[in-house]
Amino acid sequence: MFDEYTYSELGSIFAMQGFAGISLFSVLLLMALGLAIIFGQMGVINMAHGEFMAVGAYTTYFMSTLTETYFPSLMPYYFLVAIVVAFCVAGVLGYLAEYALIRHLYKRPLDTLLATWGLSLIMQQSFRTLFGAREVSPTLPDWLLGSYQPTDTIDIPLNGMFVLALTAVVTLGVFYLLYKSSWGLRVRATTQNRVMSGAVGINTKSVDRYTFALGCGIAGIAGAAFTTIASTGPTTGTLYIVDTFMVVVFGGAASLIGTIVSAFSIAQAQSLLEFFISGSMAKVYTLFALVLILMFKPEGLFASKVRR
Amino acid sequence: MKYFRTKIKGLMALPAAILLSTSCFAATPSTADINTTGLAITDDTVTVGILHSLTGTMAISETGAQEAEKLAISQINEMGGILGRKIEIVQEDGASDWPTFAEKSRKLLVRDKVAAVFGAWTSASRKAVLPVFEKENGLLYYPTFYEGLEQSKNVIYTGQEATQQILDGLNWVAKEKKAKTFYLIGSDYIWPRTSMKIARKHIENVLGGKVVGEEYKPLGDTQFGSVINKIRLKKPDVIYAAVVGGSNVAWFKQLKAAGITAKKQTLLTISVTEDEVLGIGGENLEGFYSIMKYFQSQDNENNKAFVKAFKEMWGEDSVIGDVTQAAYLGPWLWKAAVEKAGSFDVDKVVKASEEGEIELKTAPEGYVKLHPNHHLWSVARVGEWKKDGQATVVYESGLIEPNPFPEGYQ
């Protein structure tokens, strides 16, 4: 298939294809981080995760409209602010959801599945009522549009580079929070032994609430970032939720490293296969491989070593 | 008062739309004469159904269609209704769920006894309601451009079937852009696959061109990086696209981000109307082409009146896409057929429709005529997208005969 091309052309294609894989990796990781934190630390499967992403995306859209109307001169900068606001809005909503809904169901994990699914339906219809059924896109600042051209034949998408950088920042931030801060210490203690943590004076309820809020907030950041690559509609969340679960389950619950490795391998497999065979079949083979691996390692790639 | 006057002015163009004038019915015919099958018709009203998704994934697309149908019905009512009867609407929500569509259509036909239904959008929802309409002998006006290969006694198709949309667009691009090589890409379900099959046959057998790649992405997929690299490797003269829904937006945003713009690459799509452009953003589409039968920017008197009336009813920000316009034709075609038949009985209305003389001289898209095979004669138009989300029509075919079962293309 490569006969009629020169070496420089092939080189450019491979460089761009390599970036396509890395870019997919960063997207998957950013989607999965929030869910992995919540699932890993609390055992709650948040079916509304996709909708919290949509909250972030709609916040970005709202900020874009606001800036365009009142402060048009600030258009080049609003996007960075929007990401922070998206984190806060989604985080606060997550905090409220935990307080009103999830905390009553910790002893019934299967019911959280149903409850969060119901929450996702409620959120979808709220988006539809508030923002309308049509898909929307925020106006992106110019520095996010177009491509970077190191040579004549290589185009690296700017939005892909941006998502990659953002993912790196968020991932490092999460690592710092969980493994270097005193709050992270309390989270990890609660995960390992809830009763004992309570006994030594850790407010496990508050830990749960903030963990859930953090997970949702990160989903909000992901949603804001994805407005650069796709549009936002009431059901946008459902587009992402399957991939997100795939990454978290494959990586093994309760393991951030697992999530990263799993996002990387799924992304590379998917984008390489897609280059050589058709899009639909690439997905089939990727899922097939996942099922096979999970049959032999049902706990995922990196099973947690917590005593149950 | 101003509102009233503009409304009247907007309506003035429409009475002319109906060639078959209502004037021959000086006296209102008696209900027993025009309704022998027990439909919901009184001495001064007739009930119809509207069945579209107001909730769920498809709400984005179907909202415009039901708005257009309501506009047409209110305009018909202001003109005095049909056979002296005002149209009343029972609206049901298909909720983007095909079994719900079937259930609601049964309710409309059996319980509400509606004289006609305007509705369905996806092929899947049409296939779901088809057996119900055939069993209960209902009448459905279906607005979407679709893959063809269907013709039911109980359905009038007001959108284009595949050959009406595809062939002329391909001819145009082969001639104008000297295109020889094509890359086909679509979402993975029946409509894109059937359309691509027809396109491939036409490219290979009629145009003497070459298909250098054919690709289908799962519905809802938002990652096009690898596909775009593949396209770059193949260097096609034309990218021919039928990507739908949320994927559509991702596809065009990522094309632009990858530096593939109209300056370097000709792209022709059969799945982008003004509705989709709202989500995609005009700046991501600028210079690419769509093949449709209608564009909001069409410069004729009927269309100006239609756009104005639509905006008055549904807001200044509304956009009107191809399917919205096709949906608007439904009630008018029904009115013409009922008046020709002099009856609301489904069998008689269908028979009148099949005589091939139902025509709308001033439909927004231009002249349309109903073919005995239940589809419309229509014109294929190529529109070039501009930054503001509207298209300039750069090519118009002549009237194309609908051919839902094209030989040599299956």
UniProtKB/TrEMBL annotation, chain A:
<comment type="similarity">
    <text>Belongs to the binding-protein-dependent transport system permease family. LivHM subfamily.</text>
</comment>
<feature type="transmembrane region" description="Helical">
    <location>
        <begin position="52"/>
        <end position="71"/>
    </location>
</feature>
<keyword id="KW-0812">Transmembrane</keyword>
<feature type="transmembrane region" description="Helical">
    <location>
        <begin position="275"/>
        <end position="296"/>
    </location>
</feature>
<dbReference type="InterPro" id="IPR001851">
    <property type="entry name" value="ABC_transp_permease"/>
</dbReference>
<dbReference type="GO" id="GO:0005886">
    <property type="term" value="C:plasma membrane"/>
</dbReference>
<protein>
    <submittedName>
        <fullName>Urea ABC transporter permease subunit UrtB</fullName>
    </submittedName>
</protein>
<keyword id="KW-1133">Transmembrane helix</keyword>
<dbReference type="InterPro" id="IPR052157">
    <property type="entry name" value="BCAA_transport_permease"/>
</dbReference>
<keyword id="KW-0813">Transport</keyword>
<dbReference type="Pfam" id="PF02653">
    <property type="entry name" value="BPD_transp_2"/>
</dbReference>
<dbReference type="InterPro" id="IPR017779">
    <property type="entry name" value="ABC_UrtB_bac"/>
</dbReference>
<feature type="transmembrane region" description="Helical">
    <location>
        <begin position="109"/>
        <end position="127"/>
    </location>
</feature>
<feature type="transmembrane region" description="Helical">
    <location>
        <begin position="239"/>
        <end position="263"/>
    </location>
</feature>
<keyword id="KW-0472">Membrane</keyword>
<keyword id="KW-1003">Cell membrane</keyword>
<dbReference type="GO" id="GO:0022857">
    <property type="term" value="F:transmembrane transporter activity"/>
</dbReference>
<feature type="transmembrane region" description="Helical">
    <location>
        <begin position="212"/>
        <end position="233"/>
    </location>
</feature>
<feature type="transmembrane region" description="Helical">
    <location>
        <begin position="156"/>
        <end position="179"/>
    </location>
</feature>
<feature type="transmembrane region" description="Helical">
    <location>
        <begin position="20"/>
        <end position="40"/>
    </location>
</feature>
<feature type="transmembrane region" description="Helical">
    <location>
        <begin position="77"/>
        <end position="97"/>
    </location>
</feature>
<keyword id="KW-0029">Amino-acid transport</keyword>
TrEMBL record, chain B:
<dbReference type="InterPro" id="IPR017777">
    <property type="entry name" value="ABC_urea-bd_UrtA"/>
</dbReference>
<dbReference type="Pfam" id="PF13433">
    <property type="entry name" value="Peripla_BP_5"/>
</dbReference>
<feature type="signal peptide">
    <location>
        <begin position="1"/>
        <end position="26"/>
    </location>
</feature>
<keyword id="KW-0732">Signal</keyword>
<dbReference type="InterPro" id="IPR028082">
    <property type="entry name" value="Peripla_BP_I"/>
</dbReference>
<protein>
    <submittedName>
        <fullName>Urea ABC transporter substrate-binding protein</fullName>
    </submittedName>
</protein>
